[in-house]
Amino acid sequence: MSLTLPGAPLSGRPAGVFNGNVNAPRHLVYFEPVHKRIRAEFGGETIVDTTAARLLFETGILPVYYVPESDVRTDLLTRTDRTSHCPVKGDAAYWTVSAGGRTAENAVWGYPDPIAPWLKGYVAFYWDSMDAWYEEDEQVFGHPHDPYHRIDVLRSSRRVKVSRNGEVLAESSHPVMLFETGLPVRYYLPREDVRLDLLEPSQTTSHCAYKGEATYWSHGGEDVAWTYERPLREAEPVRDLVCFWNERTDVEVDGEPQERPESPWS
Asked: What does the pLDDT average to over 123-135?
């Protein structure tokens, strides 16, 4: 396994990540300063309050906040017997958080004697084990925001047609196109251009760290589309529009059939 382990925090990604260099390491780990106040709450208590967090990026894993132990309510933590081993970072120890009459088992981990020395003195939390996370005074959802991940939302006059099993579900020349790092282009369509009579509201919901909470629509018993009724600021232009999974429908753009992409939603 190729590995890049910086001896000091890096200020940006190694060039090989961006330029398609086939000789770039297959596994990258780097540690960057976060210039935001980060807080986490659990059981009515503020468990983390720091302006000295670091964001750890590791190939194939969502970014993780590591925070100095000195900025954690360690009086609310109890070390457990759980351990794990990472060939990159070392042997991890775990702690349970107890507050407000509640517990979050093994919610915190750290490396008392890490392979990467710059991890010493920091701990990380399983995101969903906490009740709420904040960057400055804005609540954030899903996972820490990745500064290398972005969305671009652009109005377009390209004609988008969506079909499934030969049945046209939507057709619009007023799409809003959302370009998101690492994902297929998504086409958000006005509701008046969507055959809502062919769709059923679904019980499914999901939360995106960059766009907000989505509610879903189904067709033939399968979820095929979603809507952000209360999007986050960056995704405001797609409010109340309907987007279909390219992976589960047949999409044409200006009369050209689009390939169904391979993704976790295929």
From this structure: 97
Do 12 and 103 sit in the same domain of this protein?
Answer: yes
pLDDT of res. 100: 97
- Kindly tell me if the per-residue pLDDT of 145 is higher than 80: yes
Sign of CA dihedral 238, 243, 247, 251: negative
- Which of 107, 113, 110, 132 has the alpha carbon at shortest distance from 49? 132
* CATH number for the domain harbouring residue 180: 2.170.150.40
Q: Is 265 among the domain residues?
A: no
Answer whether residue 177 is part of any domain: yes
Task: Please check the confidence at residue 11 and state whether its pLDDT lies above 60.
Answer: no
| CA distance linking residue 64 with residue 56, whole number of Å | 5
Q: 72, 106, 140: which is the final residue of a domain?
A: 140
Q: What average pLDDT score do residues 105-133 get?
A: 96
The token pair at 83 is 């351990």
Q: Cβ neighbours of residue 28 under 8 Å, at least 6 residues apart?
A: 3, 4, 13, 14, 17, 57, 58, 59
Per-residue exposure over 203-215, b if at least 16 CB sit within 10 Å of its own CB, e if not: eeeeebbbbbbbb
Q: Over range 201-215, report the average pLDDT.
A: 94
Stronger pLDDT, 239 or 20, i.e. the higher one: 239
Q: How many domains does the chain have?
A: 2
Handedness of CA 66, 69, 70, 72 (dihedral sign): positive
State the amino acid at position 30 in one-letter form: Y
76 domain residue, yes or no: yes
Contacting residues for 91 by C-beta, under 8 A, at least 6 apart: 83, 84, 85, 111, 112, 113
Percentage of residues of the chain with pLDDT beyond 90: 76
**Do 118 and 77 fall into the same domain?**
yes
The answer on 253 and 167 residing in a single domain is yes
pLDDT of 150 reads 87
